[in-house]
Design goal:
heterotrimer, A alpha/beta, B mainly alpha, C mainly alpha, A: alpha/beta, six-stranded mixed β-sheet, four-stranded antiparallel β-sheet, B: ABC transporter involved in vitamin B12 uptake, BtuC, 11 helices
Chain lengths: 234, 289, 325
């Protein structure tokens, strides 16, 4: 479904991704793990169009992402929940969700999608008129995921969803990801919290210093030495 | 009621009426700054052009005033778009000061173009609207009309910003422009729409101001600086702050004009502004970062 | 040879009026020198990102305080000018201190200063009984024409030398600031204010110092203009147009370069004269029109100005051009 081939990307003179190739097949949940500064967020941004790769190719269901204007990428079915949520702080929960459903195709299904999101996150329905910036970290994360779901995406990109959240909330969060997956959505998660993410994904890649060091099923990686080295590592 | 009380009340009321128009002006400027992060220094000059437009349409070509107003609003709206596309858009990545200076250049250009095209004489719409007498006070109908129209304009903008998708996108982009891509929003389109809206508000302000004041190429100098002060005091980009500050300044100008020459009203307002900076900096720190 | 170049140029400049007596070109040169001094004063702040759109206000204060002190107070300009400088400095402190203290920078600062110059204009107009308002004001002629006491001279040569001296002093001050610690402090502040403060720079104090210096120099330019032209009006020495003209000229000439403002002054003044001669009275407004268009074009295509861009071509590796010129 999503295919990256030899992608290089960076910021100005600084290169963050070196020759990254990965794929997310239909029906899969894939994780990308790695230590701080590995380039995981850059990877997400390159897929959703926030930054452009310098070389390589990215295709979503055959469509060439590099040939697509950045703001049209979400129209191809890729929804990105950015690192640290990036909600619109002085807008209500409902307005934030509304922005998620900005696409013309999503506007037609606004009510329906809203019900889906409130179904997954009943807390959001209670707080629909509350300013997003005044909510707790966990609630903001729910809102951010809900916002991404409003466009009825095929692939959900989750960037460090557990960041800044208490362990109990993180646990609930990943349970939720499982539920979303069960509903038929593909997920690509980038995470530092290895244990939690390998619980919910089928396969994962290890990203360190901008390149893929290892790949395999969740079980394989959980057992492997490579991961331990990468995190504690040299 | 003593004579002085009557004049005071009249000044207070006129202050409120003036405040409505000033609030409209500051709304336009705040919109553009909040969304595009650029200050249109030439904003008052756009209004000046709108006022000339009304003068020519109504007084010279005898277009019915309602139609003239619509043409004026749409026309200045388009000027706003042209300003954005020609001057602002090429400079979006540049240092903010360059953007400021570029609109300064446009200010120069518009004032001079008006001087060359229309001459420096004062022109008046020639519309004599009645003056209402409430107990002992005289309230001019044109001021009431201006106040009413300004309020309606602001309500319409409010509805647009809160009830429509585009309006919501405009509010969103002012809070976090970088992730708008993720929502499928084309920032450049939003900028153009905002420029049109800012220009349209200037056009509306022009219609209202031309009812009360003469137009000449430098008329923008009468209310431009005040609008900037209002926006800075309320916090650039802060709509509610600008709204409140507009009425405060309007009262200062009105009351200042009661006891002294009109120009002193502006001086008071500026002095008040300086004092406020010392006394309540939080009011000024309510800016977007 | 390179060492003696400035001296040769200096001697040529000083000797100019003695060799070439024609009054009109000399008048133009004097005007250029006075405005160059004003523009250089502005650029002392502008180059550090402290863009003031209110220097027209300081110039106006310089001109009007001097003239009013002479006409109403009988105060010789030798005392009146220091008074004007003081007034300008005080106003600068009054407006700039709260701005800097409360971190009002960039857009905000520019707008506040813009309003300032507008207000100065309003005050001049409002006090029309004393200042003549928009009709202008004339310092009284003292006994015939030339007098050191009244700082009035009928000979252009004298004025040329005075203007040259003041202009040269302005360039000298520019260089002094350029080679001082203040320059590095201000550059650090303009890059990253918090970082500079953390490194121990007294941000507010440094900014205030350069602002007051710039304001006082500009006031001096205003006073000088008043004494030379013997006629001032709000539009010619103060107000937003003057402020913008200042910025425009410096941008055209080159903001980071010592002679940039001078080049800018020469270009704008000569342009205005050419237009005036070609179009006569129909030229009213055309010069500003051309300025406006050129300003926009320059900002978009040549933000470093003419001199700055030319120097950049000589030193292609620089981000900002080197200070000397």
């Amino acid at each position: 479904m999503l295919e990256l081939r030899s992608v290089c990307a960076g910021y100005g003179g600084f290169q963050a991704l070196f020759d990254v190739s990965l794929e997310v097949r239909r029906g899969e949940a894939v994780g990308v793990i790695g230590p701080n500064g590995a380039g995981k967020t850059t990877l997400m941004r390159v897929i959703s169009g926030l930054i452009r790769p310098t070389t390589g190719s990215i295709a979503m269901e055959g469509a060439d992402l590099l040939a697509t204007p950045a703001h049209r990428i979400v129209g191809l079915g890729i929804a990105h929940v950015p690192e640290s949520r990036r909600l619109f702080p002085r807008m209500t929960v409902e307005d934030n969700l509304k922005m998620g459903g900005f696409l013309p195709s999503a506007r037609a299904k606004y009510r329906e999608r809203l019900d889906v999101v409130y179904g997954l996150f009943p807390r959001l329905r209670e707080r629909s008129r509350q300013l997003a910036g005044t909510m707790s970290g966990g609630e903001q994360q729910m809102c951010a995921i809900g916002r991404a779901l409003m466009s009825d995406p095929k692939l959900l990109l989750l960037d460090e969803p557990s960041a800044g959240l208490a362990p109990v909330i993180v646990e609930q969060l990943f349970d939720l990801v499982k539920r979303i997956r069960a509903g038929g959505l593909n997920v690509l998660i980038v995470e530092q919290n290895v244990q939690q993410v390998l619980r919910v994904v089928d396969r994962a890649y290890l990203l360190k210093a901008g390149s893929i060091r290892a790949a395999g099923t969740a079980a394989e990686l959980l057992a492997s030495e490579t991961i331990r080295e990468a995190y504690l590592g040299v | 009621m003593g004579i002085l009380d009557i004049f005071l009340l009249e000044a207070l009321i006129n202050g409120v009426l003036l405040g409505g128009v000033l609030a409209l002006l500051s709304l336009g400027l705040n919109l553009v700054f909040g969304v595009i992060d650029v200050v249109w220094i030439c904003y008052a000059e756009l209004i000046m052009l709108g006022m000339y437009g009304m003068y020519f349409l109504y007084s010279v070509y005898h277009v019915p005033i309602g139609l003239a107003a619509v043409v004026c609003i749409v026309g200045v709206g388009m000027l706003g778009v042209i300003l954005h596309v020609v001057v602002i858009a090429p400079l979006l990545g540049a240092a903010p000061i360059n953007q400021l200076l570029a609109t300064g250049g446009v200010l120069f250009f518009l004032q001079s173009a008006a001087t060359v095209l229309f001459g420096i004489e004062f022109r008046n719409l020639g519309l004599r609207l009645p003056v209402l007498k409430l107990s002992e006070m005289f309230i001019s109908y044109s001021r009431l009309l201006a106040f009413g129209a300004a309020l309606i304009g602001m309500v319409l903008v409010y509805l647009f910003l809160t009830r429509t998708y585009t309006g919501t996108a405009i509010r969103a982009i002012a809070q976090d422009r970088h992730i708008m891509i993720l929502m499928g929003v084309d920032s450049r389109r939003i900028y153009v729409i905002t420029s049109a809206l800012g220009g349209g508000l200037a056009g509306l302000a022009a219609c209202l101001l031309v009812l009360q004041y003469d137009v000449h190429p430098f008329v923008g100098l009468s209310f431009g600086p005040i609008t900037f002060l209002i926006c800075v005091l309320g916090g650039l980009g802060n709509f509610a702050g600008g709204f409140v500050a507009a009425f405060v300044f309007a009262e200062l100008i009105s009351l200042g004009g009661l006891y002294l020459d009109l120009e002193w009203g502006y001086v008071f307002a500026f002095v008040f502004f300086i004092v406020m900076m010392f006394v309540r900096p939080e009011g000024l720190l309510a800016r977007r970062s | 040879m390179r060492r003696s170049l400035p001296w040769i140029a200096g001697a040529a400049l000083i000797g100019l009026p003695f060799l070439y007596q024609s009054a009109y070109p000399l008048h133009i040169v004097i005007i250029i020198l006075i405005w160059s001094f004003a523009y250089t004063s502005w650029s002392m702040m502008g180059r550090f990102g402290l863009v003031s759109l209110g220097h027209g206000g300081f110039m106006g204060i310089g001109a009007y305080v001097t003239a009013l002190a002479w006409n109403h107070g009988g105060l010789t300009p030798w005392a009146g000018i220091p008074l004007a400088l003081l007034a300008g400095g005080l106003l600068a402190v009054l407006v700039a201190y709260p701005c800097f203290r409360f971190r009002i920078t960039g857009h905000y600062f520019a707008l506040v200063t813009l309003a300032l110059s507008g207000i100065v204009l309003q005050v001049i107009t409002a006090t029309r009984d004393q200042t003549g308002g928009s009709l202008g004001y004339t310092p009284e002629r003292y006994r015939g024409g030339s007098s050191l006491y009244a700082l009035q001279f009928s000979g252009k040569t004298t004025w040329y030398l005075i203007a040259l001296a003041v202009w040269a002093a302005g360039i000298y001050v520019w260089y002094r600031v350029d080679r001082s610690m203040m320059r590095y402090a201000l550059e650090a502040i303009s890059e990253d204010e918090d970082g500079a403060a953390a490194a121990g720079v007294h941000v507010t104090a440094e900014k205030l110092k350069i602002t007051v210096l710039s304001a006082m120099m500009t006031a001096l330019a205003g006073a000088l203009y008043c004494q030379y032209q013997m006629f001032i009006s709000p539009d010619t020495v103060s107000g937003i147009s003057i402020s913008l003209q200042m910025v425009f000229a410096v941008v055209v000439g080159g903001i980071y370069v010592s002679l940039g403002p001078t080049v800018g002054a020469a270009i704008t003044i000569l342009l205005a004269e050419v237009l005036r001669i070609s179009f006569g009275t129909r030229a009213v407004g055309w010069d500003n029109l051309v300025y406006g268009v050129l300003l926009v074009l320059f900002i978009v295509f040549l933000p470093k100005g003419i001199l700055g861009s030319l120097l950049d071509l000589r030193r292609p590796s620089r981000g900002r051009p080197a200070p000397s010129a």
